[in-house]
Write a structure and sequence with these properties.
This protein is an alpha+beta fold. The protein has two domains: 23-54 and 66-245 and 377-400, no CATH class; 248-348 and 421-535, Gamma-glutamyltranspeptidase, small (S) subunit (Glutamine Phosphoribosylpyrophosphate, subunit 1, domain 1, 4-Layer Sandwich), CATH 3.60.20.40. It contains 20 helices and 22 strands. A hairpin with a 6-residue loop joins β13 and β14 (393-395).
Length: 536
């Protein structure tokens, strides 16, 4: 049996985790070391100034917990500060577009940078190696450089989509950012170019020498706060000092005899449990994988969970989230009856137009003793801001708050907005069966759901489960990838559905998974990214 396994969205990260495991590190050490490398080699997908959620199942330590490190709005935020500048809501519900885009690009887009604090906390409580030791691979990649991958260039050069700007300004608008990602003549780096970031290497060396506290209350914190103050940003020294991840008990559900452990609001696990509860009322295997009826049934479950999320789910510090109702079997039974009657759920949107944006990454690590770690971390919407001399980009997650007062996701000081991040562990009894998670904005839960159905209902191995064609319904439209058949598309249109075909064969979340079997483990990395699985 393979003693340990890693699935990550970047080869450099997967190799780093494998090296740490070979050197005697545990799954937490391996995952955090890999995640630190991800912040260097995929710096618009994640960063030390980002946010996320990690899920730890460590029977060897008697631990099962999630650590939420969601970015929170600065203390100076006002609920109505952007209410008169709304252009539209993205069709999939991933944020709002304002007239001057200040919630997307620039200093006002930044929420509290939680990631480094969370990494440090996890290591101190559950790891065997120090943050300083695990920073060394990331420092080497920042100093020596790494090859720019096609996935990165595709992100930088993505054209404008239905109301949102393209991504080029994220890496070209600000001088300190431009010098990292562009050649001296201003042209973007290309596939195969070596990208070095000596400023980030120096920052990481300082953190290794002085600890994570330097980022939140020391010299680095002073540089961050000064840059924010000089450029109209809202993050202050007090906001940095208040950055504290939260331990939460996993949110539990069941599906066809499996125990589902996922994350609580404001994370996306509540949607996963709701959808699985609904779909348990259908014989999906008999219906047939990706048949017209399968797509209809699963899409309606997605729409119901999306409408419920938009109306009722947010930061439990600020709103009363009806978790028990939305995850109850009785509620799911009523929703399943609606689907069986052929009812179509409407997902309200404010001036729909736009599409999702994916600025997130994933790491899964597990060992033969049943210890498992899955983490999804992100910049949300990359702000484009890099403080001169520090080298890392800040998150821009203010973009996903609702600028309309009085809604579940509305602005408030110190608030986190709903995120679909849903690192999940499926257990058979007390033993893990699936360890998974995905990037992909509002499509994260939809990708995770389908990979779980593929493994549980259809018996696929991990790579098959994350590679099978996917679809999504996060609005009134069913979106399909290019490997969903034209026949199914015609049938859905004939039933009165709006259907949108994407040109990509692999899309709607980028799922990574490790599966435990009676004979060992297998792993899957989503083909849409440069991901990699390594057994150690």
């Amino acid at each position: 049996m393979t003693p340990s396994m890693v699935s990550a969205a970047q080869p450099e990260a997967a190799e780093t985790a494998a090296d740490i495991l070979r050197a005697g590190g545990n799954v937490v050490d391996a995952a955090i070391g890999a995640a630190l490398v991800q912040t260097v080699v995929d710096p618009q997908m994640c960063g030390i100034a980002g946010m996320g959620c990690m899920h730890l199942y460590l029977p060897s330590q008697g631990v099962h917990t999630t650590i939420d490190f969601h970015g929170r709005s600065p203390a100076s935020v006002r609920p109505d500060m952007w209410a008169d500048r709304i252009v539209q809501e993205a069709e999939d519900g991933w944020g709002f577009i304002l007239q001057n885009r200040e919630n997307e690009l620039g200093y006002q887009a930044v929420t509290t940078p939680m990631t480094l604090r969370a990494f440090d906390l996890a290591l101190k409580q559950y790891g065997t190696k120090s943050l300083a030791e695990l920073l060394q691979p990331a420092i080497a990649y920042a100093e020596d450089g790494f090859q720019v991958r096609p996935h990165m260039v595709h992100f930088w050069t993505r054209p404008p989509i239905a109301g949102r700007d393209g991504n080029r300004p994220i890496v070209t608008h600000f001088p300190a950012t431009r010098k990292i990602y562009c050649h001296p003549d201003g042209t973007l780096r290309d596939v195969g170019d070596i990208l070095r970031n000596p400023d980030m290497a120096r920052t990481l060396r300082r953190i290794a020498a002085h600890g994570a506290d330097d980022f939140y209350s020391g010299e680095i914190a002073g540089q961050i706060a000064a840059d924010m103050a000089a450029n109209g940003g809202m993050i202050t020294l007090n906001d940095l000092a208040a950055c504290e991840p939260e331990h939460t008990t996993p949110l539990w559900g069941t599906y066809r005899g499996h125990r589902i452990a996922t994350n609580n609001p404001p994370g996306g696990g509540i949607q996963l449990i709701e959808m699985l509860n609904i779909l348990e009322h259908f014989d999906l295997k008999a219906i047939g994988h990706n048949t017209t009826e399968y797509i209809r049934v699963v899409s309606e479950a997605m729409k119901i969970a999306t409408a419920d999320k938009d109306a009722k789910v947010g930061d439990p510090r600020f709103i009363d989230v009806p978790v028990a109702e939305l995850t109850s079997k009785s509620y799911a039974a009523a929703m399943a009856e609606r689907i069986k009657r052929g009812e179509k759920t409407h997902v309200p949107r404010f001036n729909p137009g736009g599409t999702e944006s994916r600025h997130t990454t994933q790491i899964c690590v597990a060992d033969a003793a049943g210890n498992a770690f899955t983490m999804t971390h992100t910049l949300g919407q990359p702000s484009g801001v890099v403080t001169e001399g520090l080298g890392f980009m800040y998150n821009g997650a203010m973009a996903v708050f609702d600028p309309r007062p009085g809604h579940a996701g509305s602005l408030a000081p110190g608030k986190a907005r709903f995120t679909a991040l849903s690192p999940t562990i499926v257990l058979r009894g007390e033993k893990p069966f699936l360890v998974l998670g995905a990037p992909g904005a509002t499509y994260i839960t939809m990708g995770n759901l389908q990979a779980m159905l593929n493994a549980i209902d259809f018996g696929m191995d991990a790579q098959q489960a994350v590679s099978a064609p996917r679809f999504a319904a996060v609005s009134d439209r069913i979106e399909i990838s290019n490997r969903i058949t034209r026949a199914a598309e015609r049938d859905l249109i004939g039933q009165g559905y709006k259907v949108g075909r994407h040109p990509y064969s692999y899309t709607f979340g980028w799922v990574h998974m490790i599966r435990f079997t009676d004979t060992g483990m297998d792993g899957g990395a989503d083909p849409a990214t440069d991901g990699m699985v390594i057994g150690v």
